[in-house]
């Protein structure tokens, strides 16, 4: 029998990372502060009496002057203005203030009074807002004075006997109720407010709300009153599907809770109480008592942690039993006994799980760091332990006595013992479904903590930080964060916005505006760090949080990624302009749109074309940005589009007989007289210039129209040659004017791999024949076998430096010029048919695609080969960027750049 939850785990692909509980609340807080948009802008009356009872959030702004930044020493951090929603909100408040301040005697009416903002949701809009300004009676005849202003248009309306005003062509609506000025951009919300004034609302009579309201501190800059069950029902459009379901725990809170928000320079402090009246439904009830002091967690987590979720408890057995019960209650079936039995069985032990659990302490954490192999994060589990030496000794005995000891492995790294167990999803079996992002079981035992990771190399990279003291405890920003957090907690959440962009974009948030803002923060190296703790108290759930702003700390960003509008059809391909010290990335989607991205992954332009591009993009005029353009073919058209996104006349050009091959763009004499060479569907090899005309003097050589063609350019002994390879395994060698010099039989054709390598010493070309022998070919067409060979009908040949390489049925054979096999190594489980070679930073790389539709990257040099098991990309390219090698790759709708950092394996 397999694992009970194998089906559940299979849904969690290697791209999926679930960080549970307060992490969801942490991201929710991010949404509350920055995502809801647009913020609509409005005897004594209670401001609550005009708020409709479908409000999900109510903000009471006690320090309006802070938002206005008017005659105030305090200034909000620039990071906040990067978020479109909050920028628009602040600008709206300031605009409203300018309207009020234009009336003599009321210059500070907003700054001197209390402002309430209620957020309301519907299926038609992310949020609408009601603004209620509670004046102290000093506003005088403000309403009449504003109405008298000639530069503003007012139309008087009426609803249920109450007059209200439509201002400036219905861009804003407002009415006055005694000491209250009520404003909104949504007329229906104004109607609802007027009805509420007369009929009352349900929440103001609620005991739960009254307790929540009374708990708000007058000294806080802002009081936020949150109706979590209401809010949850409206969040589906903001959170991704897999994360939205993971937020369902917020429904278990009893209605309203409060968060006090206070601002101090470069930091926002949060504190509040949420009721806990729903018994065992609430997640917090898995904790049986008060937690201990948990400051040691920050020494567990590396400085570059992207996101972390941790739980603190008095003892592991009681905590885990309660957690199992909670998961089953929430219809996430998990049988701990069954999972631990299977954990032992896979490891070849009878009691390994029990032995390990007996050493677990009072903190359990799941955290993610920027990926060592790319943008996708590395995910780890950390659990505190009580006796590291004893645990290492016990694991050694378990390995020695295991019935599967040949499948175990161990090593020592910087004095730390690392064990590799033959167990899939070991963290899942030990801790439950929310650790299913860790599919393999590699364990590192440090002095007071045990780590579990997906690979030894990722553990080493992570531990390098921890063992060198680069932990959250040493981070400058964390010292500030800590000041706003409770020292004792049951749940802890941490988010580094710069590092967590991948998680936010791919796993958590659907909101593209927020993602754009986060990417802008990342590019400007603006740091933004968030942490939240919760603890179980008699009066409810004690909530504390902190957001710190500043410069990004450390070199934590490993690249970028950008989503196109639709799935990638061709590319990404690099367009390199060394003279300009620039490069661009070009790609197309399935709807025949072409995109140009800059070095930071920003889309410079998008253009709709006719026909599917053929991935034969070539950059011309690369020494002048004004003239710089990209040439490519699509269906039966030739295109030339400037790097500025403007099509160059007279392109696009339709080829009457159609285009049957990828184009080849050549600048023979490096004088920018480019030639565009391709085969038409009649078999004729055509040659166009950049004016879109047939090149004068080209002889239009003809091949066999029924065969596919691969056209390549080679320079040999100072002369230029065009070689036309056909799928019938024949080749023509042409002069630069298209004169057919010779036709050769029995030359191996591979559509996706250029061949015919020049041999300057002998003035010949080197290729292979159908059988796999490496041959020399003279300019007269004479062939001579250099290295006899016999391979399958699907092999590929490439020369890298002095090495002759054959890739056949997933095996790589490296030979010297004498035909001696230096290295034989399995690279792929199936044959590789698409090969590209790269030479970057003095090292050769081979990119391949196999018949299982996997793509991979092999680095080769000095008889040492390194391999990346390639997932998640359908095409890629390499470039040297400063001191790094960047891998530019495309998958589905995403184009990304990552620093290439593959672990070496000596053969």
Task: Summarize the topology.
Blueprint: H1 6-10, H2 22-34, E1 55-61, H3 64-68, H4 78-81, H5 84-101, E2 114-122, E3 125-134, H6 142-147, E4 154-159, E5 162-167, E6 172-177, E7 180-184, H7 187-199, H8 207-214, E8 222-227, H9 228-233, H10 241-244, E9 256-264, E10 267-274, H11 297-300, E11 307-312, H12 316-329, H13 336-347, H14 352-357, E12 360-369, E13 378-385, H15 388-401, E14 409-413, E15 416-424, H16 426-431, E16 440-445, E17 449-453, H17 456-467, H18 476-482, E18 491-496, H19 501-508, H20 512-523, E19 526-537, E20 540-551, E21 559-563, E22 568-577, E23 582-589, E24 593-597, E25 603-608, E26 618-620, E27 629-634, E28 637-642, E29 653-654, E30 664-666, E31 675-679, E32 685-688, E33 709-716, E34 719-726, E35 731-735, E36 740-744, E37 757-759, E38 764-768, E39 774-777, E40 783-787, E41 796-800, E42 803-808, E43 811-815, E44 821-826, E45 832-840, E46 843-850, E47 855-861, E48 864-868, E49 875-881, E50 884-891, E51 894-899, E52 905-906
Antiparallel strand pairs: 1-2, 1-8, 2-3, 3-7, 4-5, 5-6, 6-7, 8-9, 9-10, 10-20, 11-12, 11-18, 12-13, 13-17, 14-15, 15-16, 16-17, 18-19, 19-20, 21-51, 22-23, 23-24, 24-25, 26-27, 27-28, 28-29, 30-31, 31-32, 33-34, 34-35, 35-36, 37-38, 38-39, 39-40, 41-42, 42-43, 43-44, 45-46, 46-47, 47-48, ...
